[in-house]
Amino acid sequence: MTIAIIGAGLGGLALARVLHVNGIEAVVYERESSRAARGQGGMLDIHSGTGQRALREAGLIDQFHAIARGEGQDMRLLEPDGTLLWQEDTPDDAPLARPEVDRADLRGMLLDSLPDGTVRWGRAFASAEDGMVRFADGSSAPYDLLVGADGAESRVRALLTDARPAHTGQNIVELGIPDIDRTHPDLAAMVGRGNYWVLGDGQSLGAQRNGDGRVRVYASFHPTPADWFATSGIPFDDPAAARERLLELFSGWHAKFRALIAACDDTVQPRPLTTLPVGLTWPSKPGITLLGDAAHLMPPVGQGANMALLDGALLALALASHPDDFSAAVKDYETEMFERSAKVGQMSARMQEMVTAPDAARRMLAFFQPG
Ligand SMILES: Cc1cc2nc3c(=O)[nH]c(=O)nc-3n(C[C@H](O)[C@H](O)[C@H](O)COP(=O)(O)OP(=O)(O)OC[C@H]3O[C@@H](n4cnc5c(N)ncnc54)[C@H](O)[C@@H]3O)c2cc1C
User: Fold this and answer.
1) What EC number(s) would the UniProt record show (predicted)?
2) Cβ(6) to ligand 1 under 6 A?
3) Per CATH, which fold does 167-274 belong to?
4) I want to staple 301 with a disulfide (CB 3.0 to 4.6 A). Which of 56, 74, 80, 351 is the partner?
């Protein structure tokens, strides 16, 4: 029986790894030309009950602890006038409940754990029919089970459902300050070792320290329409002018937050936020399924990578317990995954509503400090 996984993201790799640990080999087809072809983005917090559970099934939890940053759990919450509302510093001996890890390190760990040749690079999924998957370069490969682990803009998804991601009303600009300890020690001290959030009315600024000394900065605008970037006046092809425009958009904010924007380098990326409908399901179809963002794209409030890892691990365990009946395995997996992702999707939607509300900072404070 041949298992073809489309996408070497966290979910697809977790599936391949847990299958391997259980004596089942699979092939992962990835459209990127190599593991280094594209930057992998910032930090992810990996939770003990979900993402870490998957890494335990993968036999990689000790390796994960070696690359995880417990101090990345630190949190500071502020208002646009500079008022510090909440600060949490992680003690050195705190349990690793949701440590941060660099996405590239986590993906690298999963890639290194697979036998050579498991991942076929440069294979972009184009279509699938009658047990054959076809790639954009004209090549093809057989499958008995096809797993769409191809992320938010999944092409495999269309084989199971007409659902498509819809814009959430939030648009984010990603920026960053390289080597912050050396280049801007004052800003490094301000942001601290973990997450730094400034929540305002219709706008927010987030900053997050990465393992390589870079601080990623996220400027969010909400509610804004899907075509907002075209009308925002932010010239993405001219980073210096884009920073100037962002400084204008944050003109009423405390000087220390504007300094954060001014210190950024020339990475200025527009990131419109989209999600799939919460509670999305489809009638189970023998031979095809989805996992991770392809199945349940959620707002980025800290659950997506955890769900993708756990989906991969649980699908692998279902396949290992029904090695001669992929249909039964897929049904068992989908039943659990639909229920779990609906619950987590509702929770994420509530969190997303809170962080984009006009009084977001006070609402977040009440969340951290109930009663
Ligand atoms: C700014 C931001 C911050 C986030 N922070 C967090 C966080 O702190 N915690 C958390 O849990 N989640 C976070 N998330 C969400 C998380 O990144 C995703 O939910 C997670 O990466 C989904 O994993 P995946 O394996 O489903 O998809 P992906 O990681 O997107 O991987 C999909 C893979 O499929 C490949 N692919 C796509 N199309 C094709 C094709 N046609 N053929 C072959 N290959 C293809 C892609 O190249 C990619 O390698 C964040 C998301 C964003 C945008």
Assistant:
1) 1.14.13.-
2) yes
3) D-Amino Acid Oxidase; Chain A, domain 2 (3.30.9)
4) 351
Rounded to 5°, angle at Cα 41 from 73 and 151:
110
| Dist. CA 318–CA 337, nearest whole Å | 11
CA nearest ligand 1 atom 4, residue: 300
Which atom belonging to ligand 1 lies closest to the Cα atom of 38? 47
Question: What's the whole-model pTM score?
Answer: 0.97
104-123 pLDDT, tens per residue? 999 999 999 999 999 999 99
* Pocket residue to mutate for ligand 1, from 30, 119, 216, most atoms within 8 A of Cβ: 30
CATH 3.30.9.30 placement within the chain: 167-274
Sequence ranges of the chain with CATH classification 3.50.50.60: 3-72+97-164+276-354
Report the candidate in 129, 108, 20 with the shortest Cα–Cα distance to residue 64: 108
Please name the residue whose Cα sits nearest to atom 27 of ligand 1. 151
Given the CA of residue 29, which atom of ligand 1 is nearest to it?
Answer: 43
**DSSP H or E run through 98:** none
In tens, the pLDDT along 330-351 reads 999 999 999 999 999 999 999 9
Is the Cβ atom of 7 under 6 angstroms away from ligand 1? yes
Assess whether the previous peptide bond of 223 is cis (omega < 30° from 0): yes
Query: For a pocket test of ligand 1, which of 120, 137, 150 has the largest count of ligand atoms closer than 8 A to its C-beta?
Result: 150
